[in-house]
Structure formats: C-alpha cells, structure tokens
Amino acid sequence: MTRLRRKALVSLFLFTLFIFGAMMGLRTLKPSDGFSDLAPGMGFIRERERDRRRLDAEDVAVSPGQAHGGSSSSDTKVVFTKSDRDYSIFYDVHIFYYLWYGAPGTDNKYIHWDHVLVPHWDPKIAASHAQGRHTPPEDIASSFYPELGPYSSRDPKVLESHMSQIEEAAAGVLVLSWYPPGVADDHGEPSEDLVPAVMDAAHRHSIKVTGETTGMFSTS
C-alpha cells in the first residue's frame, strides 16, 4: 500500500511539473512564433471585424430629403444628419399603412373604426356570437387601441405624427394600401385623393412610398 501511494505521489508530481513547464513555455511564445495557430477562430473574428468596419464606412451621410434623390435605390441603410443628431433609416424595413380611417371631427362620422363584427368561420359558433358593428370610440374594429385615439386619416396632424413615428422606428419604406380613384372596400370610402399628402409627408421624413398591390402603384 505504501509503495502504491509513493507511485501516485510521484506521478502527480511529474504531471504537475509538466503542466508548469508547458505554461512557462507558452508564455515565452510570440504571435510570430505561431501562437495564433492555437486559436484558429481568432482569424475569423478579425475578418468579421474588418467587414463590419468596411460596411460602416459605406454608410452614406446625407441631409434629410436627399434619400429621394441623392442615394441609390440599392442602399438599405442611410445615415441622415440633423442639426442636433445623426440617425439611420433602413430601406429594407417596410411598414404597411392604411388611409381608410375616419372620425367625426374631420369626416362627420367614424369610418372603418365601426367595422362590422367579423363572424366566426364556423356557422355554429358564429350563431352564438354577437352581431352588428363596433361602436367607437370605446369599441373599435382593431386589436389594439391607437395612442391617438380613433383618428381620421385626413387629419394633417395625425399624418405628420405617423410619419414621425415611422421615422423614429428607422423604417424606410411606407407600403400604402391604395385603391384606384373612386374605389374602396366594403366598409370604407375612396381615399385616393390622400395619396399626394401622404407622399409629401413621407418625403419630409425621408421615407419612401410604394404600393401594397404589386405593379399597380409604385414610386419613391
């Protein structure tokens, strides 16, 4: 038993001595001696860092409004400069926008906020559900209640507020749900005459505008 313990202690001592010697040897190595080969992933990390710096250097610094004429359509990120700060807009981020809402203060009635109650797809279940229409301003046809309340899409202040919020969200493209002149869905009214106001407001906030229906309406 004593001999076995002695062998174990000798083995442990030799192993400790080997580890100590290896560590001291590594401390004397320089990068040129091949130390970087011990961590092959470091080269990949450095390469990714160079790519990130290159992409940052390609960001275009322009003034508000130049996004519609000064930068190419292939740019997905543009850095704008205002008097107080720099901010970015990403033109590969799209937000859908609808012009069909109305309110008594502007339109003399609620439009689309009082949408009919959508029935359940199963007639047996639908028969036990309430029927009729939503009753604004408390009950509206929306899963979420807007911070501005049941607004009118024709209210210039609402439109300006929406464009400011979209700009703050760094979304660069407004996808407008557009109907041809005189056409509307079953629960709304024609709103094609609002398109110029939307485009002007979007332009003031360096936002591009396109249409929800491909090929029907597209501009920027």
UniProtKB/TrEMBL annotation:
The keyword rRNA processing does not apply. Its main location: Golgi. It comes from the Eukaryota. Keywords: Golgi apparatus, Hydrolase, Membrane, Signal-anchor, Transmembrane, Transmembrane helix. One of its GO terms (cellular component) is Golgi membrane. Gene3D superfamilies: Glycosidases. The keyword Membrane applies. Residues 55-75 are annotated as: Disordered. It holds the Pfam family Glyco_hydro_99. GO terms for molecular function: alpha-mannosidase activity. It is found in: Golgi apparatus membrane. It is a single-pass type II membrane protein. PANTHER family: ENDO-ALPHA-1,2-MANNOSIDASE, GLYCOPROTEIN ENDO-ALPHA-1,2-MANNOSIDASE-LIKE PROTEIN. Belongs to the glycosyl hydrolase 99 family. This is Glycoprotein endo-alpha-1,2-mannosidase-like protein. The lineage of its organism: Eukaryota, Metazoa, Chordata, Craniata, Vertebrata.
